[in-house]
Amino acid sequence: MSKTQGNFKLTVVEGEFTDSQIVVMLGENGTGKTTFIRMLAGLLKPDTVEGTDIEIPEFNVSYKPQKISPKFKNTVRHLLHQKIRDSYMHPQFVSDVMKPLQIEQLMDQEVVNLSGGELQRVAICLCLGKPADIYLIDEPSAYLDSEQRIVASKVIKRFILHAKKTAFIVEHDFIMATYLADKVIVYEGRPSIDCSANAPQSLVSGMNKFLSHLDITFRRDPTNYRPRINKLDSTKDREQKSAGSYYYLDD
After folding, report:
1. What pLDDT, on a 0 to 100 scale, did the predictor assign at position 223?
2. Long-range contacts for 12-18 (Cβ within 8 Å, ≥24 apart)?
3. Which domain range does residue 131 map to?
């Protein structure tokens, strides 16, 4: 299927996904990641083909948009009570999602007064608190510091696994993306002009493809096992490029 918006066209390649799986979307800015997630959310309709409407199968989705605007004129407690009452009163949800995201400390604050990071944590909580088959999360790391990003990643990963659901996530933080991803969708093409979203593929092959476009290599730090970027044209960088191994996981 495809979607044309102004001068930009996104083509989506057919693929498969399963439950208990997180699919991370990787691509440069302007390649259509948010466009695709909005199509999955039912907010954008695919282009017609020869006059025929293309229907996306109807799923029960929960969507956290990229841009969060705090319009709610009351406290966080009122917001959660109104939007996700059953979840936010459930002990499992409180221990697995609300406590790690430190939502308790924000309960009596006015939503309009929250900082960007506080708002992001509440938005993630709201998204996961809504019963759904598919969770669509656009840039969960925005406005979070490095420690909060790790916590948010663990919360999302554990929730999707235990709830046996599927998540599609747009994430620019490379460490967060590699931690979250079971599969990746790589976006290719000319940004803001003509791009394609490939079928979901394994983390290693997807990262290799994405990094080869950027001409960057990563290795895993032997002390903390986190991905580290190799210095351009260093011995390690040249070795990995000659082997076609842009994303190197071995110790």
Report:
1. 79
2. 12/36, 12/39, 12/46, 12/196, 12/197, 13/196, 13/197, 13/198, 13/199, 14/199, 15/185, 15/198, 15/199, 15/200, 16/199, 16/200, 17/166, 17/183, 17/200, 18/166
3. 2-214
